Amino acid sequence: MRKFLSLILFLSSLSFASLAFAQQDADIIMPAVQLANWGAEILVGTEVRGERDVDGNYAGLNYRNFALGARYRRWNFLIESATDSQSTGNATLSVEKKVQNILGWAYWTSDRSWYRLSPMIGGGLGAYQIKVATTLSGTETDDSSPWKVMGGVAAGLKLNLPVLWLSVEARILAGDEFDPQPTLSALARIGLWF
Amino acid sequence: MRSVSKLFCLGLALAAVFTTSACSYHQKEDSVSGDVQVQVPTYSQGQYQMSVMSLTSIVDLTHLKGAAAHFLIDPHVFKNQLRGRQPEIHYMRNSHGVIVPTDADSLQLLTVYSQFEKLHQLDQSLNVASANKWPVTVAVNALTKDTVTGGVQEDNAFYTGQFDAYLFAPYTQNQLPLMVNAGVLAHEHFHSLYQHLVIDPLGDKYPDASKPTGHDDVARLKKFGLAVGIDEDLTSDDNPSADSRVKYHSLLLRGVNEGLADVWGWIFTGDVSFVGRSLKSQEYNRNLDIPVNWLDTKAQLMMDISTKSDLSGVPYEIGPQVARTMKTLMQKHYSTLSDVEVRRKMAELVVKILPVLRDKIGSLKSDESLSLTDIITTMTSQISDLTSADCQFIDQLIPSSDRSASYKCGAAQ
Fold first, then answer.
1. What value does the mean pLDDT of chain A take?
2. What pLDDT, on the 0 to 100 scale, is given for residue B255?
3. Closest CA–CA distance from residue B147 to any residue of chain A (Å)
4. What kind and span of H or E run contains A9?
């Protein structure tokens, strides 16, 4: 857990520090890639969230992340889906938990970059649902929770390259009945933008 | 510089909005009151299936605290007390408001709590709830030494009178986990009743039998010399020495304990093969529907003691004889009643038997000893109006060597 927290803090501080360095060292400041006013992007990513297991310990859970977005100048507006699936138990009794998040995110990316890295910050709001399939002696019982509100803030770095999107970010997420509240996460994305 | 200011302003605004909204999110509800509906595995119509149970005693869902049970995860002993972490179970509410555990560990813990609430209700209905302290202590993922192999004990559940707690060793097989097996929970729970109603009161007279039952039983046997060699006095059942006599009765008491605990598992669930559902190797040995043809004689038990290097299995050889005999007899005797009614009659009989058994053993003179036959006939004598068919069944089981001249089926012992 300490490593995970360190990663989150590292990513957060890096995004802000890079901007500060860029201001101090005029030689390495370069304008970001020239942008058309409007654009779009398609992104996939992997996200690690620090959630608590049954023993109360923090465990890093991997979410698959997919996003489609539109860009207006330095603003990116994404519709993002993140899913995680965990299966526990044995051959006779098992529990499969699937979590589905759907959020709308707005990111603002700085027009300055440092070694092609531009800091970005963002905020999102959406909902999540849990589905549980409990299998007992081959018979499956399916349950789902109602959709519940969740949101988050993010800070990260985006590599300034034409067409290719590469970014990392740290997130603080909160939502109805999150455990822990708030939940920290780290997200790495790759994609295409136009 | 303008963009830095913009960035910070935007960041601050986002953080402010987020913090405000995060505060309004609902926290996971730790405290609950009233009826709580939970979805757990239960035994019904010959199989385990997921069903909704209503819990009335739980007060903290996340940490599973309530009047029925409290849990210790990864237990250890510190200053002669059992300690461990409290659990943190994961669950969600489905669209009907029912609590659904979201991982297998949480499901097992919630099932244990649910079943102990039912066991508490059963004890209350039989007026024996005061024999135990409630909530009971359940220690999960207990790593104890297997005194036979020297490794870590796996796939087992114990009641330990030393700590008045239930210990669950890690379950590694692919059958029904022990913590979900209601019959196993009831079996272990019976050990606590037996401890408080039979063994503890016998403490002074039979110090060996009053030692804690549980995971250290085998070690305890070895400590008391039963498993390491042949005691010459034990080879003769006519004249056992006082010390050997105590050891013999200790083993017999443990066998009866195991047998009645199996009966209690059947009473609670209606499952005649509950041990085999979790432990395939025990499927036949512990099935209560296997016919019983005879009872071990006193001489046979003495022979076991004198020839077997490891006696830990002997109580599990005596136990099924007790369990099958009592179950078969009750089903014959109450053949017109439903299965549920027969099990209720059986529960009432077992509760009635325990003090009688305790008094019978407690009142033995120094030159007297009991056989398994004596134990069985003492139990069956508590059944009113035994029929000739009942007596015929009992009589055929009794070995002639252990038949008392004064014994007459149906007469008070």
1. 85
2. 93
3. 27
4. helix A2-24
List, as ranges, residues 175-194 from A with C-beta within 8 Å of B.
175-179, 181-182
Per-domain residue ranges of chain A: 2-81+108-122+152-193
Are B7 and A119 in contact (CB < 8 Å)?
Answer: yes
Q: What angle do CA B321, B324, B374 make, to 5 degrees?
A: 50
Distance from CA of A123 to the nearest CA of B (A): 6
Ranges assigned E (strand) in chain A: 29-31, 38-52, 58-72, 75-89, 93-109, 112-114, 117-136, 139-144, 148-160, 164-175, 183-193
Cβ-Cβ contacts under 8 Å, A149 against chain B? 25
Q: Which residues of chain B have pLDDT under 50?
A: 1, 209-242
Q: Give the predicted TM-score (pTM) of the model.
A: 0.84
Q: Which of A54, A111, A132 sits opposite B3 (nearest CB)?
A: A111
The answer to whether B28 contacts A144, with C-beta atoms less than 8 Å apart, is no
Residue of chain B with shortest Cα separation from A138: B49
Which of B3, B47, B104 lies nearest to residue A93, judging by beta carbons?
A: B104
Put simply, the answer to whether A93 touches B98 (Cβ < 8 Å) is no
Complex ipTM: 0.84
